Amino acid sequence: MQVVIENSHRFSSELRRKADLDDVPLSTDDVTQSVADLVDDTYIDGVLSDVLPIGSAEITATIEPVFKTPPLVDEIDVRLRTGGNGSAVEHHKRFKSGRWSRTRQQRLLQLRQEGTLAEGETAFHMLIGLPAAGDHPLQPPALQPPPIIDGTLEQFGFREFGEGGFVPDRPVLVNNRMAEDAVNACLAAGARETGGTALGALVRLKEPLANTTTRIVTLLTTCLEDQRHSGKLNEWSISPEAIAAGQEIADMRGMGESVMTIVHTHGFSTECGNCNQNASCPLAECTHVSLLDYQVMETLFPGKSTLMPIAGRKLGAPGKRPVLEIHAWRGGEMRPVRWKRYQD
């Protein structure tokens, strides 16, 4: 697939002591190329939304900054066009976050570690967009549609829906036993982070499910616990060997599943008996995706169709058990999305 990116701006990520452009920046990073990553986000969003056709020979992407007040960028608008001669299809998204957001977090940590910025001192982030001389070329990402199976939920053992709900353009179904296994694994591991290989499939149905707008459903069918996905407090790692073993099991099951992602835990303590209500608990919440989480997942699961299930404490959640959150790529970052259980 040929990808052409139209872009006429250079972008930089700045950290400053004040919320204006009067002082000298604490740091400046050129993030122009990282903006091109949003083309992949937009493309996969269009495919999973059942808007963009799979197999297009060429896609043209137009990137435009949406300014608060020039040169301060509020959002990045990405518009994709494919086809022609009366068959053109467009899809566009706006982004407040992107890879530059992780660059900013890394830079902020560095400034604190080196003492340039004191612990607790506020730094203001600004995304700057300046016109470039003519069209500023960007290296396009390799757009690759995820494997999608035409079929039914029943062929994966589906019997009935459970609790939960859907994001209309990104419906996610999780096997009830898999969800319970993730919560129980979190309880068993305690404060230590751990993980398991998740099998599943992207399924294109004949018609969208109720309260959804796309025929494509993400199905997570089972979690294979494996001690090779190891971790400790606020730290974990993925075993490529365990992922390969998981794919072998998926092949033997013969349902068309593949390794979709890794389920991991953010720790949970039963000692205080109040983990979901303790605002001072040092354990990361399951709603939080850390820089390490991004690094580990993007290394082995770089596709924007990837989900990140995390089990752990969730401040304000009822009960005294861990909560399972499903994160998906939304708006240039991993965000929790609504999902629905199913019984097999």
Could you walk me through the main structural features you see in this protein, from its secondary elements to its overall organization?
The chain contains 6 helices and 19 strands. The protein has 344 residues and is an alpha/beta fold. It folds into 2 domains: 2-131, no CATH class; 149-343, Cytidine Deaminase, domain 2 (3-Layer(aba) Sandwich). The strands form 4 sheets. Strands 8, 9, 10, 11, 12, 15, 16, 17, 18 and 19 form a 10-stranded mixed sheet that branches. The protein has a 4-stranded mixed sheet with strand order 1-4-5-6, covered by helices on one side. The model has no long low-confidence stretch (mean pLDDT 93).
Please describe the topology of this protein.
Elements lengths: L1 E6 L1 E8 L10 E4 L1 H4 L1 H12 L9 E12 L2 E11 L6 E7 L3 H15 L10 E8 L17 E2 L9 E5 L7 E4 H14 L5 E10 L11 E10 L5 E2 L2 E2 L3 H14 L4 E8 L25 H10 L6 E6 L10 E8 L2 E5 L2 E4 L1
Parallel strand pairs: 1-4, 8-11, 10-12, 10-19, 15-16
Antiparallel strand pairs: 2-3, 2-7, 4-5, 5-6, 9-19, 11-12, 11-15, 13-14, 16-17, 17-18
Put simply, the count of helices is 6
Coarse structural class = alpha/beta
pLDDT under 50 segments (min length 5)? none
Q: Specify the oligomeric state.
A: single chain
Question: What best-fitting shape do the alpha-carbon axes yield?
Answer: globular
Q: What's the pLDDT, averaged over the residues?
A: 93
Intertermini distance? 38 Å
What proportion of the residues is helical, as a percent range? 10-25%
Number of domains: 2
Rg (CA only): 21 Å
Series of secondary-structure elements, N-terminal to C-terminal: EEEHHEEEHEEEEHEEEEHEHEEEE
Largest sheet composition: 10 strands, mixed
